[in-house]
Design goal:
heterodimer; A: 227 residues; mainly alpha; 0% strand; flat; B: mainly alpha; globular
């Protein structure tokens, strides 16, 4: 039933997209971590304006589809005159891959911020007070008390966001980036071996998610050992 | 920017978006209904079914949840094209492709995806019902159907509502992906508008606001539903 020739060409073509998907996914995750962590810190800060901004951001980005955000960035922002005139901005918004990374980072960041907010809120106030009482500086409190406790609480939910970010990379194919889904779609149109192509592409996504989830699992175990 | 938005809305694109909103609502509501049916069935199997069926349900939730939604939509769409290519003359496939077929793919895809998440949501809800209550109902001789109607379902819905809300919001936003196989919903209306008017920023901003409004409104409905089904629940808890 399985045509070996077809299988090997499919696999070779899909692998080209595979690495691009991994690249977009990893940068997206790094960006979303930065965005999410800073938003969560804004929510925790006493500043009303910062809190409002972070709340508005997460409501807005969680309330609209990633596809809309991606198209807005790629097709929409690129039409603004000042973006076209600024070399740095044009570098960012003229390229589909960079737009995809930005969209995933901004979108996933909104979800990540909520995960980390939950983590920060789960840190017992008594511990923070105790750290203050023995004269720890704000930075050291964060590094030694708040963050280690928050990350233990947040890690399982954070792993969900990693999976969603990786799945989100498949949308890069809609703005003409030849990622894994882009190559899969082109193959489906060429050889009509839809089920076979789909199964292989699906397995490759599973491989990415499985690897990343295993890493999270290792971190989780490592944190438990040190506790 | 606001001028441009009002202009494109006045130039007939307002109607286009209104049709898009209707289609988005139809697809996501039907898809979610299918998802809830799959979810309740899957959850019942996972809690009380035979071992081999339980394994099958776990396989389904794992596979569907770990593959990108877009790929699932492509499989359903292009897959059925492949399967039906021999029957093309019989079914006038070309006509179908442009009319009802993307909608059918949309409902199926949203149903399968929402279903895979719903299984876990409803399983959690089923397991939250105290075992003693069901035993008590059995002890006073309630038949299985009445146990389901009077004891299990009313409580299960309250437990499941927050999770179901998440699934619904995701399903609503996933409908945007069906635009990529040709369904004219909000996202496709925006894409067509962007190509025709050369105002992509305005078009996608309108689309974003529309999704946001539908999401916020349905969020309010879920809060109401929670209050309604939660009558007497908090007193006990």
């Amino acid at each position: 039933m399985i045509d070996l020739d077809l299988f090997s060409t499919t696999l070779q073509t899909l692998f080209k997209g595979f690495w691009l998907s991994v690249y977009i996914g990893l940068w997206g995750i790094v960006l979303s971590l930065a965005v999410g962590l800073s938003l969560a810190l804004m929510r925790q800060s006493g500043n009303r304006a910062l809190q409002g901004f972070a709340f508005g951001y997460s409501t807005l980005f969680r309330g609209t589809p990633l596809l809309v955000q991606l198209f807005l960035l790629y097709y929409g922002v690129g039409t603004l005159p000042f973006v076209r005139q600024s070399p740095a901005l044009w570098w960012l918004f003229s390229d589909g891959m960079r737009c995809a990374i930005l969209a995933i980072g901004l979108n996933s960041g909104a979800y990540v911020s909520e995960v980390f907010r939950g983590g920060f809120q789960a840190v017992p106030t008594g511990q923070i007070e105790a750290a203050k009482a023995i004269g720890m500086s704000a930075w050291m409190r964060f590094r030694r008390v708040v963050f280690p406790l928050a990350i233990r609480q947040a890690l399982p939910a954070y792993s969900n966001e990693i999976v969603l970010a990786i799945k989100g990379t498949s949308l890069a194919s809609t703005i003409a980036v030849m990622d894994l889904t882009g190559h899969a779609k082109r193959l489906m149109n060429q050889n009509y071996a839809i089920i076979e192509t789909f199964v292989i592409a699906g397995l490759l996504y599973l491989l990415i998610n499985f690897t990343l989830l295993s890493c999270v699992h290792l971190v989780e175990r490592w944190l438990h050992i040190r506790r | 920017m606001l001028d441009t938005i009002f202009n494109v809305l006045r130039e007939g694109w307002g109607w286009m978006f209104l049709r898009g909103v209707m289609m988005t609502l139809v697809i996501s509501i039907l898809g979610m209904a299918l998802g809830v049916v799959i979810g309740i069935t899957g959850a019942s199997i996972k809690t009380t079914g035979p071992r081999w069926l339980r394994g099958l349900v776990s396989l389904y939730t794992t596979v569907v949840r770990s593959i990108p939604e877009l790929l699932i939509i492509y499989l359903l769409f292009f897959g059925s094209v492949q399967a039906a290519s021999d029957l093309a003359d019989l079914m006038r496939w070309e006509d179908a492709m442009t009319s009802w077929f993307p909608a059918l793919v949309g409902v199926l895809a949203i149903g399968l995806i929402a279903g895979s998440y719903s299984v876990e949501v409803f399983r959690g809800a089923l397991q939250a019902i105290p075992e003693g209550q069901i035993e008590a109902a059995k002890a006073i001789g309630m038949p299985a159907w009445m146990r389901l109607k009077r004891i299990i379902l009313p409580q299960m819905f309250w437990y499941a509502l927050p999770g179901a809300n998440n699934v619904w919001q995701t399903a609503l936003k996933d409908t945007a992906l069906i635009s990529l196989v040709g369904l004219v919903e909000i996202m496709r209306a925006a894409t067509l508008g962007a190509a025709n008017t050369r105002e992509p920023l305005a078009m996608y901003l309108i689309a974003g606001v529309l999704y946001f409004l539908i999401g916020a409104l349905s969020q309010a409905l879920f809060v109401l539903a929670e209050r309604y089904t939660g009558k007497g629940m908090r007193a006990r808890a």
